[in-house]
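From the methods appendix. Each design record in this collection lists the tokenized structure first, followed by the designed amino acid sequence. Records were kept in a plain field format so they could be parsed without special tools. The example shown here is representative of the layout used throughout.

RECORD:
FOLD TOKENS (516 positions):
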């Protein structure tokens, strides 16, 4: 009666078909894509160098801004060093103004090749510094503006050459410029990598580097790790990981936050990259940061370990073995809802694992807290909690599912059947179906709980749902467990397909049932 494609789609709704842990994790990864893909406001891809108010660039020094752009361009090519430096500095100051720097006007003026040429003047480090600063701020703009710097003849190779400058301020400005170019996207990132940026950049990570410089270096490392379409070259990741293993011990909060975000980007690139991060030995130092007193550090650490547990059961176990679950009572009761949401998302990937991993979540006392978020959390957190419970009904053995039912999961679970998000409705129906299938002798008790909390009425209404999978599954549940036919048993489950709809009444059912 049903076509093969329909049968195949339907098997995804049943516990015993096509639902290995890896697939569930992948499904979770796609569902929560917004948890990891959203750009962090507090972590900019590109940064403009704007002088501090108390710097030497105070009002009386700003008079060169009154020079016309034509004059600046003309003087920037002067053979008199003082005039040339003044013009380049005037251009830089225009670009450092707080509001709406005239980047496009400067690009259109034709000054870019002149500024790039100034980078070659090794006998005039002040000129190199001012030119590098001006180009940094042009590259901090839109993608087209960054591209204008990249396309200026020889600019990027010259910035790389300036990393070897004996003058630290010149080196640091070159690092900053390269960070803006790398931050533009994977193409620019890979171009700068191909020119050999990694080795000289990492050489700056040493005990003698000033903290402000090291912050910039770490930010550039973050941009090198960013973007997964395509991800950075594997050899680049291998080069960066030892540096991140050093930086994760740094006491400066900015450096620590950036380091952990870099690890979160690397672990968001699939199982091979997750394994590289694990093999670097950084995970035991990453997990304790979940209880750091700075929320920024906690947020980044939660994202990074959360990405690792989207991997295989073995990769997930590495994180569990670091006593990760002991940090979760505090994360699940955190004052910031975003941390609650990501904490539940993390647990949903643990409950997608094997039965020992499910048991670890139960033993840590976290299930009642997940149920609390299912009942009272904001909708995005409730959604993650629904996944956590539904995954447990797929991965867990009968006693584990019984425990969740005894903790009172059914009423808040059923409450989500009326939400507009079809995916959540399907996840909940899937979970209810699994619970009923495993209930054996206690199926009537569970059916009664579902009916008494209003769940049955909601399931009946879902038979009119516009989504075909939802209305079929709703019909299925009512037909099998709520039809009121006393002679009905599990053997009467639908048999319209040879595999997807076959409920095995004897499959791993405890003789003692759910022990209510």
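DESIGN:
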């Amino acid at each position: 009666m049903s076509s093969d494609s329909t049968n195949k789609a339907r098997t995804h709704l049943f516990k015993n078909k096509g639902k290995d842990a890896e697939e569930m994790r992948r499904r979770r990864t796609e569902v929560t894509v917004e948890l990891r893909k959203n750009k962090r406001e507090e972590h900019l891809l590109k940064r403009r160098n704007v002088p501090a108010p108390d710097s030497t660039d105070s009002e009386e020094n700003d008079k060169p801004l009154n020079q016309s752009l034509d004059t600046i361009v003309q003087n920037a090519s002067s053979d008199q060093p003082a005039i040339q430096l003044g013009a380049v500095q005037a251009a830089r100051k225009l670009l450092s103004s707080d509001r709406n720097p005239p980047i496009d006007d400067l690009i259109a003026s034709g000054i870019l090749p002149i500024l790039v040429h100034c980078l070659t003047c090794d006998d005039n480090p002040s000129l190199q510094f001012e030119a590098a600063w001006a180009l940094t701020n042009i590259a901090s703009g839109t993608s087209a503006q960054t591209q204008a710097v990249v396309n200026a003849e020889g600019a990027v190779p010259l910035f790389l050459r300036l990393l070897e400058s004996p003058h630290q301020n010149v080196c640091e400005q070159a690092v900053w410029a390269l960070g803006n170019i790398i931050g533009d996207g994977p193409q620019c990132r890979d171009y700068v990598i191909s020119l050999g940026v990694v080795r000289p950049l990492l050489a700056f990570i040493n005990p003698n580097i000033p903290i402000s410089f090291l912050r910039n270096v770490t930010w550039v490392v973050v941009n090198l790790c960013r973007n997964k379409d395509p991800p950075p070259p594997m050899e680049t990741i291998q080069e960066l990981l030892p540096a991140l293993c050093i930086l994760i011990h740094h006491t400066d909060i900015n450096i620590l936050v950036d380091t952990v975000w870099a690890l979160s980007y690397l672990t968001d690139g699939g199982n091979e990259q997750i394994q590289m991060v694990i093999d670097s030995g950084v995970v035991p130092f990453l997990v304790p940061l979940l209880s750091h007193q700075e929320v920024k550090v906690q947020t980044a650490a939660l994202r990074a370990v959360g990405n690792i547990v989207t991997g295989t059961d073995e990769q997930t176990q590495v994180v569990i073995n670091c006593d990760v679950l002991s940090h979760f009572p505090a994360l699940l009761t955190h004052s910031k809802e975003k941390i609650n949401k990501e904490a539940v998302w993390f647990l949903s990937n643990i409950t997608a694992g094997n039965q020992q991993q499910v048991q670890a979540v139960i033993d840590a006392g976290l299930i009642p807290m997940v149920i609390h978020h299912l009942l009272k959390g904001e909708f995005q957190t409730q959604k993650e909690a629904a996944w956590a419970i539904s995954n447990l009904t797929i991965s867990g053995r009968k006693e584990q599912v019984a425990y969740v039912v005894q903790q009172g999961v059914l009423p808040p679970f059923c409450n989500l059947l009326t939400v507009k998000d079809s995916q959540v409705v399907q996840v909940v129906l899937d979970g209810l179906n699994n619970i009923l299938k495993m209930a054996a002798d206690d199926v009537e008790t569970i059916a009664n709980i579902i009916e008494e909390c209003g769940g049955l009425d909601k399931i009946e209404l879902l038979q009119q749902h516009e989504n075909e999978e939802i209305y079929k599954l709703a019909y299925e549940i009512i037909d099998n467990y709520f039809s009121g036919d006393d002679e009905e048993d599990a053997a009467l489950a639908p048999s319209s397909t040879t595999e997807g709809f076959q409920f095995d009444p004897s499959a791993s059912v405890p003789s003692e049932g759910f022990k209510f």
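APPENDIX NOTE: Residues 379-395 form the longest helix (17 residues).
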